[in-house]
Amino acid sequence: MTTPVLLRVRNLKTYFVTEQGKGTARAVDDVSFDLYSGETLGIVGESGCGKTVTSLSILRLVPEPPGHVLPGSLIEFEGRNLLALSAPELRAVRGNQIAMIFQEPMTSLNPVFTIGDQIAEAGIIHQHLSRGAARARAIEMLRLVGIPDPDERVDHYPHQLSGGMRQRVMIAMALVCHPKVLIADEPTTALDVTIQAQILELLDRLQHELGMAVLLITHDLGVVAGHADRVVVMYAGRIVETAPTDALFERPTHPYTEGLLAAVPRIDTPRARLHAIPGQVPAATAWPSGCRFHPRCPYAWDKCVSQEPPLLEVGDQASHTARCWLVTEPGRRVPQR
Amino acid sequence: MTLVEVRDLVKYYAGERRWFGLGRPQAPVRAVDGVSFTIASGRTLGLVGESGSGKTTVGRTILRLQERTSGKVLFDDNDVFALDATRLRALRRRMQIVFQDPYSSLNPRMTVEDTLREPLEIHGLHGTVSALLDEVGLDAAFAKRYPHELSGGQRQRVGIARALSVEPQFVVCDEPVSALDVSVQAQVLNLLADLQAKRRLTYLFIAHDLAVVRHIADDVAVMYLGKIVERAPAAEIYAQPRHPYTRALLSAVPEPNPHATKRRILLPGDVPSPAHPPPGCPFHPRCPHPKKSERCRTEPPPLRPITPGHLAACHYAEEPM
Predict the structure, then answer these.
(1) Is the dihedral of CA B157, B160, B164, B165 positive or negative?
(2) Which of B153, B255, B259 lies closest to A222 in CB terms?
(3) How many CB atoms within 10 Å of residue A332?
(4) Contact state of B211 with A260 under an 8 Å Cβ cutoff
(5) Fewest C-beta in 10 Å: which of A50, A87, B164, B172?
(6) Closest chain A C-alpha to B190 CA, distance in angstroms
(7) Nearest CA-CA partner of A258 in A319, A322, A312
(8) ipTM field
(9) Rounded distance between C-alpha atoms, residue A7 and residue B104, angstroms
């Protein structure tokens, strides 16, 4: 691939000291990936897999304490390690070159300021716009994200808007400074399905128009299938599979990816029993030995219990990797239970 | 045999009063606005809609967890709203509910055992807590635990066990898997299907997710702004949706297949407030139907049969989109 790497994450470890002080939750445990300019990279996983903590770690938004990013972790944006920046240097990047939108448009907007003020703020701080120019920019941004009557809406407060409109405002806020990277953490999870379709369409259009890279964090394989170029699947603080989107859905290799895909209720299949993954996600304070998925894996054998596999290349494609011994011993892909 | 019959059910919530409760009331919120359906014994009706469509209000009103504004609910030929307190309590044993949020619907100060034993004692039943836990796939050791010690999926299993403890015939499942992760959601859906087969249960399954409903429902009703806009056997509604809103909902479901070639119907705008539903067809301001006309803006379309057993409330339900 010739496109330049915009964001390089290497050996990211973010741990939390648990409340009772009894243990350490290894929420993100040695995660590495690249984000290329202009692409959409999906990070998929269920609650507690570490996908949100990964995204918060990139912008150093993890509350410290109880959390801390371990030494040896690297988050490189355009050649600079974000983890080594001073607070003022970091502020120049955050919200300016890397922006973020969150799951809850209801709680991530400030209820006592107009949406115009909130959108203009980043322009005033990062681009030193005058109040008038910032307001004009806010109106322009509202128009860009498809809010009707932007001249009027700019003076509205968040409670006067619907959930879908609030998420549009969040997107407008994030894009004021034309960031190179947009981190979207479950941007449509709180929205109804018809509104979700609108917002995803909007993100696709804006990405195309503004040429930014998007890190799309979601639990929904359907969202990833329609909107990501490449996918990272996380389980128990680790990356378990990475692949171009087509390859992942055509040839899911890690048993977790395989199980997750089979568990999704499909609109195009008639009533039938769903495939369920037995058991539940283990606690972050006590990940299982060996492969962290082995207690729930239908194929696991003794090697999986004792040795954790590295990310292995699937076939001869360097772009498709899976953290599973089945890559080296495909004959064992026979369910044991 | 019909177990549950709902006839023209209406539930309005009184409008808020401004000026510290002294002003004139605002327009009432028409949460449920003339809903009718029947559920045959042993079957599952999937009730689908987005937030504010009134689907949850339908479920709660059927069980008389709140009073209706008008309309009738017959449960096994008993008029639910005509019963006195004693007879209603006796009837409640036969109809139960599983709530969406397993985090807030269990009492945090009661162990699993206490939660499950209470209904058994109140109704003088002989069931045991361990048998109930076993039935929902939980180890007997869970009896001594408190809700905060359980995962979301385990709590939902306890919620199901609580509903089943009084041996109901009819269970309203109000978004029972919406708060759960995909892998756990599949476990709970399978459990609900198994329990239905074993205990010959009748379900009203309320959900916003058409894909989830497809895996459990025999019949599907789609709600929009307090009204049912389409109702049909499940296979039929997924193969040949007739109402433009159902078509848009189906097309908006993100499919886990990068090569899905379906045509997306993007609906413009937001759902209007149920306090001020649009005149005529409530869906007309967002409707993408090419035949949309003046008639849609003025004349409310009745829910009418398009083919035998398949009803839709659209003037142009026969026309292709």
Answers:
(1) positive
(2) B255
(3) 14
(4) no
(5) A87
(6) 6
(7) A322
(8) 0.83
(9) 40
